[in-house]
Design brief:
The protein is mainly alpha-helical. 72% of the residues lie in helices and 0% in strands. The protein has 24 helices and no strands.
């Protein structure tokens, strides 16, 4: 594994890309095995960095040719990584785990090439066989994680075998293993959300059943968070962030103030508790996205847009013999008053401390964007603005602005900052 320390981490230039592409596959086994369970977790960030650097270098040297599908870079990456992913088709359990964990990691770094590899018939067939033949926790957890990553992309959802979906659903209801259950749960959540967005309007007649399924999944994720299992926290919060785009789920979570208080304390441990571990970046990002979703207002529409929306609603009403009660409830939950009350509960339960901690621990571009979006939602309500100032929200926003935009853009944005003191 020490070979990872010698691998280049800077993306190659166009001139050196061809040699870089030839060099890395010779050492691919050292890279791919580092994502497998049991390997030194300290090397995993290095492995992600090398993998990301390699993919970025290939894409830089092989730019897309317009609408070609797949593009040349995706084809090249898929070809390079085929031997690593083909481990899934091997009879040896350790090789299968390496293949599954590597493809899961590739989805997080370069999803286009990962999707091409996942959709290959031999991989789909092998995945179904693995689920049937191997019962060890390592294999089952890695299968669930791979299905979870694939479920986030429509091109992969359409090729996931029915047997795999049935396996996820049955495992979710039967297993007592917390790590496996959390991995399966997030896969089920992504499939549920993705499938719902894929179906046509004519197929959206089961929204009541969907809402019941959402409630079951929300309760499962909440129990995983409250249970305090370290390995399942990030998966559980990610699942809740996916589910919380639905208005009924936003309301359901906001009503459980005890859960929100517990969640925010996990994200921002009190200074007086020296034994508290630093929360992970993944967990904190999930918490921030959850706050952002729960406190998000509907877009402000112009008079013209409002008229168009009214016409769309009238057209939908004409196509249905009876109004959809679930849709009416969703509209109610998205009213400004409901969003305002949810935002106040977030502030009262300690959500501001969680946002500040998230930015301090995981100061990345994505985290800054997520935190600023959540704070923007919360300060829409004048009652929250004083609490945001007291918690250090203004300093946080200034720091985000300083790091994220140019001096000229800062000058343009200054009038918006007055909302905190209005």
């Amino acid at each position: 594994m020490a070979i990872l320390e010698e691998l280049p981490v800077e993306p190659p230039t166009a001139q050196s890309s061809s040699s870089f592409i030839e060099e890395l596959p010779e050492e691919l086994s050292y890279l791919t095995t580092s994502f497998a369970p049991g390997q030194d977790p300290k090397l995993r960030p290095k492995a992600y960095l090398v993998l990301s650097s390699f993919c970025q270098g290939v894409r830089t040297s092989l730019p897309s040719r317009g609408d070609s599908d797949p593009d040349p870079a995706t084809e090249r990456l898929a070809k390079v990584f085929t031997p690593a992913v083909d481990n899934i088709t091997e009879p040896d359990e350790s090789a299968i785990v390496v293949g599954l964990s590597f493809l899961s990691a590739l989805f997080q770094v370069d999803w286009k090439s990962a999707a091409v590899l996942f959709a290959q018939e031999r991989i789909i067939t092998a995945l179904t066989d693995v689920i049937d033949l191997y019962t060890s926790n390592n294999v089952r957890i890695e299968c669930a994680r791979l299905l979870s990553q694939a479920s986030g992309h429509k091109s992969c959802r359409v090729v996931i075998p029915v047997d795999c979906i049935k396996w996820l659903e049955s495992t979710l209801s039967r297993t007592d293993d917390v790590a496996l259950r959390s991995s399966v749960a997030i896969a089920v959540v992504k499939l549920s959300r993705g499938t719902k967005s894929d179906v046509t309007d004519a197929a959206k007649t089961h929204s009541t059943d969907s809402r019941g399924a959402d409630r079951l999944l929300v309760n499962l994720m909440k129990n995983l968070v409250v249970g305090g299992e370290k390995d399942s926290l990030a998966d559980a919060v990610e699942g809740l962030s996916y589910l919380s785009v639905e208005p009924p789920v936003k309301e359901m979570l906001a009503e459980d103030e005890a859960f929100l208080t517990h969640l925010f304390r996990l994200a921002a441990p009190r200074n007086g508790n020296p034994s508290a571990e630093q929360p992970s970046h993944t967990f904190l990002y999930g918490v921030v996205m959850l706050v952002s979703n729960i406190s998000m207002y509907r877009p402000r529409l112009s008079a013209e847009d409002m008229q168009l929306e009214k016409l769309r609603r009238m057209a939908k009403a004409g196509n249905n013999s009876s109004p959809n009660a679930v849709n009416k409830a969703a509209d109610t939950f998205e009213s400004d008053e409901h969003v305002k009350q949810r935002g106040r509960k977030i502030v009262q339960c300690g959500g501001l401390d969680a946002l500040i901690t998230a930015l301090r621990v995981g100061d990345s571009e994505g985290m800054r964007a997520a935190v600023s979006g959540a704070l923007f939602n919360l300060v829409e309500d004048k009652e929250n603005r004083g609490r945001v100032l007291q918690s250090g929200g203004a300093r946080t926003l200034v720091e985000i602005i300083r790091k994220s935009i140019s001096t000229s853009a800062i000058q343009d944005a200054e009038p918006d900052a007055s909302v905190l003191t209005a």
